[in-house]
Specification:
It is a single chain. 44% of the residues lie in helices and 21% in strands. The chain is α/β, with parallel strands linked by helices. The chain has two domains: 118 residues, no CATH class; 62 residues, no CATH class. The strands form four sheets. A three-stranded antiparallel β-sheet has the order 4-5-6. Strands 1-7 form a two-stranded parallel ribbon. Strands 2-3 form a two-stranded antiparallel sheet. Strand 4 and strand 5 form a beta hairpin. The two termini are 18 Å apart.
């Protein structure tokens, strides 16, 4: 793992934050599209000597497996992300697979995805939550947790299931599935 870790450190030094390039009219939000992420990381991966492979796997449920491999040593790390489909049609499956690929890739490579006008101020807002407010797990925290080990996932599930904290149901389900897979050695 030593060579892979060095290569990932190089990748993170070289890879600049990715600006959100697409709009989600349903949630009135922006996101970084899969093709934008893939084209953005292509050169930093090459510089770091890394290769990324993504494939769909089925183990009672559909998952996207993302593998980052150090080209010289063959060392690798894997992220598995569930494909959660709302409707049983081709469009829904395509969107869900694309979503899973984006978030699996983002979590495994620790990608920074930001709004074009984000200068870091929103991340440094450390105001404590009011007593009647719920502090929610952020998308960035969720992505990082997907790449974490058993203890990291357990800690996040414990923290964000307590009083004053919240987690989206689909994120909780995804983390519980990942935790089970890690404990089962998959």
């Amino acid at each position: 793992m030593k060579e892979l870790i060095k290569a990932l450190a190089t990748f993170n030094d070289v890879c600049k934050p990715i600006v959100k390039d697409a709009n989600n009219p349903f949630f009135k939000s922006k996101y970084a599209s899969l093709d934008h992420i893939q084209s953005h990381i292509k050169e930093p991966l090459k510089i770091a000597g890394l290769v990324v492979i993504q494939r769909n796997i089925y183990d009672g449920q559909l998952f996207v497996e993302t593998k980052v491999i150090h080209a010289d040593s063959g060392e690798f790390e894997i992220s598995v992300f569930p494909v959660i489909v709302q409707k049983n049609d081709a469009q829904s499956y395509g969107s869900a697979v694309s979503y899973a690929k984006r978030y699996s890739l983002s979590g495994l490579l620790n990608l920074i995805i930001q709004d074009s006008d984000d200068d870091g101020n929103s991340a440094s807002d450390n105001k404590p939550a009011k007593k009647d407010e719920i502090t929610w797990l952020t998308e960035e925290q969720f992505n990082a947790t997907l790449a974490a080990d058993i203890k990291g996932i357990e800690a996040v599930l414990k923290k964000y299931s307590g009083d004053g904290f919240g987690i989206k149901k689909e994120w909780k389900n995804a983390l519980e599935i990942k935790l089970k897979m890690l404990k089962d050695g998959k």
